[in-house]
Amino acid sequence: MIGVNAMDASNVNAVQDEFAVEVNTAGNEVPGTGQNIITEEEYKYSQEVIKKLSDYFEAKVVGQVQLKFSLIGAIIADGHILIESVPGLAKTTAAKAISDAVDGRFARIQCTPDLLPGDIIGTQIYNQATGKFENILGPVFANFVLLDEVNRSSAKTQSAMLEAMQEKQVTIGGKSYHMPEDIFIVIATQNPIEQEGTYPLSEAQTDRFLIKEVITYPTAGEEVEILSRIETGAISRVDPPVLTIKDVDKLQDIAAKVYVDNAIKWYISSIVVASRRANQIANLEIGKYVRIGASPRASIAFLKMAKAAALIQGRTYVTPEDVKQVSHQVLRHRIGLNYSAVADNVSVEAVIDGIVNSVKAP
Questions:
Q1: Half-sphere exposure of 222 (CA within 13 A, CB side)
Q2: What is the dihedral of CA 93, 99, 102, 103, to 10 degrees?
Q3: Is 344 exposed, middle or buried (0-12, 13-18, 19+ CB in 10 A)?
Q4: How far is CA 335 from the centre of its chain?
Q5: How far apart, in whole angstroms, are the C-alpha atoms of residue 106 and residue 256?
Q6: What is the SS3 assignment for 320?
Q7: What's residue 3's pLDDT?
Q8: What is the model's pLDDT at position 194?
Q9: Rounded Cα distance, 87 and 6, in Å
């Protein structure tokens, strides 16, 4: 049995009290860490930007609070997001709404089985006038790229995004082209219920998404609100952007300064390690369903998303609750379940909860 409960951890309240100096006008460093403290001006700025993003989203999408949190969190953490749900739950609308809020370059790619890699990243075209081949860049060169129904494209086409998502560059004809230096975020959607004409994403590609969000049906009241907004034209109305790329860039810089105590880092690491050894953890019956655990990318995603979660909630330090809050989004596409889980109707979220609860929080 592995001792995942043994951690270098202090009391959460002590951490909060010690680092509750969240608005420091001097902008100096946290003692002994070399990390800058968020100034009062930066704190107020971040809250204003987050509110603008939230308000813009709510004007276009009814409900879906968790999806709003994940999309804003992904933008703050500068990571890619995979959104999954049955048809008609505003996946594309939500993705476009959060992109439209920022005055940047937006590209939508509708994935189909006959979509080719060159249709996404670009290709070489022969110029008869010059007698030479010219590299033509594809729609992937944008600040926000929406891959709609990504699982409808072939594995070859899906793999064309791997270099762009991880290295933020693509290679065409032996020459490398870099993505936009400021912001480059891929928002992919997929439909889990259809099998004909679909190609499941590989583990190598899903791991490159910072988080995965699964959305559910709206409530009866939310559905009535959707009908009312359709009647008034509020959903289809085109509103101007409320933020610039520089605003998002600065927000990301501020998020990077959110303080993470060493005990929280140990907590994150212990959760990820526990996912790899779930079947060895005492009193974790659900661990027998885990086929493969999370990679170190999960730890990085936990760190980034926990910082984003703290900032969204108006704090400049991370608590264990922030880590728990983002555990489903970070791990649901990184933990592989075996056939026993399918046979016993055990969800990956239930497994994640079991793993997280098995690790003692600081």
A1: 13
A2: -100
A3: exposed
A4: 16
A5: 25
A6: helix
A7: 40
A8: 66
A9: 44
